[in-house]
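In the laboratory, one determines a bound structure by crystallizing the protein with its ligand and collecting diffraction data. In a computational setting the workflow is compressed into a single prediction: the sequence and the ligand go in, and a structural description comes out. We illustrate the idea with EPZ.
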Amino acid sequence: MTDIADVLLVHGGTPLEGEIRVRGAKNLVPKAMVAAVLGSEPSRLRNVPDIRDVRVVSGLLQLHGVTVESGDRPGELVMDPRKVESANVADIDAHAGASRIPILLCGPLLHRLGHAFIPGLGGCDIGGRPIDFHFDVLRSFGATIDKRADGQYLEAPKGLRGCKIRLPYPSVGSTEQVLLTAVLAEGVTELTNAAVEPEIEDLICVLQKMGAIISMDTDRTIRITGVDSLGGYTHHAVPDRLEAASWASAALATGGDITVRGAQQRTMMTFLNTYRRVGGAFDINDEGIRFYHPGGPLNAIALETDVHPGFQTDWQQPLVVALTQAAGLSIVHETVYESRLGFTSALNQMGAHIQLYRECLGGSACRFGQRNFLHSAVVSGPTKLQGADLVIPDLRGGFSYLIAALAAQGTSRVHGISLINRGYENFLDKLRGLGADIELPVPRPASQERTGAVA
Ligand code: EPZ
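The predicted complex, in C-alpha cell form:
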C-alpha cells in the first residue's frame, strides 16, 4: 500500500465545471528533448508541461553533459548539447527509474559518442511493453547490442547507415527510434508500416527545423535522407490531446462542463466523433474546446482502439468511466495493449457492470484474439457508482479512477496519486479549480516525490 502522503480523498457527486489549460504533449515533449541531443547548437522547446516525465528526461540529458535550463518564458526549456559526454551506467540506471526514454537516446548517443547504454525499462503496466522492434531497428542501422546483467550496451563500430525497415506493427516508439537514428545516418532510410500519430508528425517538424530531410507518404511510409549535421530548433510543442480527452471524459462522467484551453480539433477528430456518438457535446474555438454533458441519457456505443487515425488507446480508459453512465451495452475492443482493461475491476467494485472477454468483440480480429488476453469489454449501464478504496494501476487508469471517484456518491480514497504527476500537469489545482471536493489527508513534503516512469 502507498504511504498516506500519496493518498487523495475524493468526495464525489459534484459536476466538474470551469476551465483548464493543457500544455505540450507528454508523448512529444520528452522525444523532442532527446532530439536536441542530435544538434550542434542549443534548442529551445516551448509549451513544456511541468510533469515528472519531463524532469526525468531533463536529468538523463544532464547526466550526458547536456545543459537543460528554463528559458525566458514560462514553459520554455533551453537545451545545449555541445558538450555531450558518456554518463556513468549506474547513474543512468538510478536516474531513469522505470523510464522508457533511454531506448530513444540510443540513436542520438551512438551518433554523438559511438556507444549507448539501456538499463532495464519500465513504463505503465498495460501489457508486456517489449522493445524487440527497437533492437531490430538499431541493428538494421548497424548497431551492435551486447546484453549484460545490468542492461544493454550498444556500439556502432562502423557508424550508422540508412536502411529499409518494415515494422511488424505501427509502433510509436519504434517509429521515433527510426527517425532519431536515420536523420544523421549515412544514406537513405525507408520505413514502412510507420506510426503516424500527431506527436510523431510534431517530432518530424522538430527534426526538419534542425535540418533533417524527411518525407511522409499516405501509406505509412516515411523516407529520411541522412545529413552530415543538424543544428538546433525553436519549437512550440503540440498540445496534449490525451490529457484534453481525459478532461472531456471527466466532464461527461460527472455531468459537468469543462473548457480545455489548448485542445485542438485537428488532433482530436476521432475522439470528438466518438464523444458525440456517446451523447457528449462540444464547442470548438481558436482557444480550445468546451466539453459538456448536455443533459439526458448517454448512448452506449461500440468502440475499438487503434493506431492513429483510429481511436487512441490512451483515450479508452477515461471514456470507459463515462460509458458506465450510458444507457445499454457498450462494447470496447482494445487492440493496442493486451492488458489495458484490467483497471475495470475496481470500477466494478464501485458498482459498474463491466465484463471482460478474451475474444475480439465488436470489431475486426486483432493480434490478441488468439492469445488468451482479456482485451474486450462489455459495459452495461447506466450504473450508480459508489466511493471506494482505489489503488492507481497506471497513468491513464489512475486518472480514470479519479474520474470515477468524482462521479461516484460518497468518499473514495485514491492511493498512489503521485503516478498521475507523470503525465497530468498540476492536476490537483486543476481539479480544485473545477469545483472538485478533494483533500490530501496530510501535506506531502516535496522530499517524498518519487521518480516515476515514462509511459
Ligand atoms: C507510446 O508508447 C506512448 N508512450 C503510449 O502512451 C501510447 O499508448 C502508445 O505509444 C500508443 O499510442 C509514449 O509516447 C511515451 P508502441 P510506445 O510502441 O511507443 C508493441 C500513455 O498513457 N510493441 O506504439 O511504447 C507494444 O507492446 C502511454 O500516455 C512491440 O511488440 O507504444 C504495443 O502492443 C501509455 N515491440 C504496440 O506495439 C516493440 O518493440 C504499440 O506500442 C515495441 C512495441
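Residues 376 and 419 are 25 Å apart (CA to CA). Keep in mind that any predicted model is a hypothesis to be tested, not a measurement.
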